[in-house]
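Work Package 3 (structural annotation) set out to generate three-dimensional models for the target panel prioritized at the project kickoff. During this period the team completed the workflow that converts sequence records into discrete structure tokens, so that structures can be stored uniformly alongside our sequence database. As a representative example, we reproduce one entry of 643 residues exactly as it appears in the project archive.
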Amino acid sequence: MVRNEIALLNQETIDKIAAGEVVERPSSVVKELVENAIDAGATAITVEIKDGGITLLRITDNGYGIPKEEIPLAFLRHTTNKIRSASELLSLHTLGFRGEALSSIAAVSKVELITKTKDALIGSRYVIEGAKEMALEEMGAPDGTTFFVRQLFYNTPARRKFLKSPMTEGNYIQELLERLALSNPSISFRFISNGKDRFATAGNGNLKDTIYELYGREIASSLIEISAEEESFSLHGYIGTPALNRGNRNFESFFVNGRYIKSGILSKSLEEGYAGFLMQHQYPFAVLMFDFADNGVDVNVHPSKLEVRFENSNVVYNTLLRTVHDALAHREDIDVVPVVEDEDEVVVAPSIPRAEPFEASRLESMKASIVESIHKDTPYEQQYKEFYENKRKEAVAEEVVYHAPKPSVGNTTSEVVPPEVQPEVSHEEPSVVSNTEKTTYEQASFFSEEARADHRIIGQVFGTYWLVEYDGKLYIIDQHAAHEKVLYEKTMARLHEKTMTSQMLNPPIIVTLSTQEEEAYEKYKDSFETLGYQVEHFGGKEYALTAVPDNILNLDKRQLFLDAISACVELKEDKTSELILERIASMSCKAAVKGNHVLSMPEIESLIDQLLSLENPFRCPHGRPTIIAMTHYELDKKFKRIV
């Protein structure tokens, strides 16, 4: 029924409406309360839920606590201890505004608060249900704060029925807590769902340990650490090896000044950094931390602060792209085929060169002991933190970190090659190491000058793959992918050296461009000329292609040009480097020798020699591997010579 009269709403209705802006689901409550705990200086936070957080949410921290006289004030709307005026918003570095969301949470649930400040002799208990104060009394309590939030939306059933299943709501909470744990490795997080521990982090300040505890050993052992410094911000974190890819962007995590964000700029830059290392529709794993100086980033452009605005987005974009690409280019990346026990199929697992081997059984035993320790529920998991820290020091060796070199003025490429540390591995396999562990080591580079002299080329199979024996391994080279890579690198070198040449066409090729294609060509005309194209307007929407790059003479010149134009149309910003890379990759692919084409021994030797000279010979321009390997040990296992 529509009413024409204007009336002032009562406070209860106002609170319930306001609650809808803050409390969308159980994870919204967890976000507000955990961020408050972080801002309150907590070093240990426990979150326990039942039925996806709909029935119960318990958030316990060892932070500053709330003085008794301030507790009722904290549950009023628009109260905070973070700012005093609007001028402080741009320089705000806290995650939340303590007390900002408490009134909204209390309006749609039954809340019990137990808190004690460090200098107080006794704690306080406060109960508020549906925004109505029920009790405020003294009670014994440890330092810190515990919230019990029960029966979410009990007084707003219309909202409650739109919640998803308890399992789904619980998953939302876990994803949220994982991000908070990643952005705060110095805080010990523990998550319990329906009485079962889902994860626990040490809070020892080591981001890699946190990644291991959240994502497991496979991901933790496939990481590359990166860092970069610019005038207005710094970058540090981990990216995954190319083999550690997913079909979506769910494993791309970006944090700005400690806050998880979503950013199309950062995602695009990260993925461009992987260009040539990942195939299409594959996305990398990344946990990246950006620390900006005041006014370098605006975090108040989105109601939930999931999006930010960078003061100088071009610098951010190019720094991330360069850092990621350089880190990937300066490492050996040959996939090793492992033995799969009790299965007929063979899968490809990544070869991970790294300084410290993870000992699976030892760490699993360690984690089991940790879980047993934290079940004792000692105050704020101090026992857990001490136990894990001691074990970590024993188990993890010193890491090798890649620091991105800062480019000099006028130079966009880096000539600094980071050191690679490869562990010496005996040909004799120790019995204490698992099959999976054996596949993660690489010895001296297959493509090194020293190794080349010891290569024994066995021959070609299926007209496509070349077999080479070296140092106890069988290497298998895809001649098409290898040739693609060689052509790509040659063309790139000519571009950088400005030695690209053109071949004149007589007669010219006439093409018709749409309005969008005409605009795109004019915008990227310099890039086409750099590649070796010469184009003249022929009247109307027709253009004459009078010269093409000299390395595509045997290809469909008209279609390649139109493909390049189509790529330009799709570009929303000025990405000349992206255009050049994509087009060169396409040209190289089309010009490369195909599979099912028999090469002579001198031809394959020449191809291997050319691969040897490349900075990154391990993947073709589209991200496919050029070479895989199988160890002598793995072959013996497959033929049951080793049981």
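The chain has a mean pLDDT of 76.
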